[in-house]
Amino acid sequence: MCSNWECRAVNLVSYGTTHHNKTNGKPCFEINTKLGFAMIDSIGGAVKVNNFLATLDLKLISLENLKEMERRAGEVIEALSAESQRRSAEEAYKKEMEDIAKEEIQESRQKMEEADGIEDLGVWLPPDSSPLLR
């Protein structure tokens, strides 16, 4: 709150970088989201975070707030995972189609080489054709 007794306006001051999860609402501090990622990835949950903070003799964070951080981070991880799976499926499909095309090309080349009179991509002449054409 402003210290001027006539103003008394509330000033919002952020103490770190923030981001918005939705188009409206208050911003989230990035450090909280990073803590949510850490809880999912390596620390192992809200209780272990508080145990870690207690070991460092720091103030504990309420379990509700930690769960909210974890939930927000989980949504981001799930979205990234879905996008990664979609890209991997597309790449696998393209690779499989390329492999099938290569196999079909090799099969057609073998069939062409096995046919009489075709050594290259020239014209095939029937056996009863004029000798002048050969």
Comma- or semicolon-separated keywords:
134 residues, mainly alpha, two-stranded antiparallel ribbon, 2 strands, 57% helix
Short description:
The radius of gyration is 34 Å and the shape is elongated. Strands 1-2 form a two-stranded antiparallel ribbon.
Can you walk through the features of this model?
The chain has 134 residues and is mainly alpha-helical. The protein has a domain at 29-115. 57% of the residues lie in helices and 3% in strands. Helix 1 packs across helix 3 and helix 2 crosses helix 3 (63-114). The chain is elongated. The N and C termini lie far apart (101 Å).
* Class from helix and strand fractions: mainly alpha
Total beta strands: 2
* Coarse morphology: elongated
Low-confidence stretches: none
Layout: helices, strands, pairs:
Elements lengths: L17 E2 L8 E2 H14 L2 H10 L7 H52 L20
Antiparallel strand pairs: 1-2
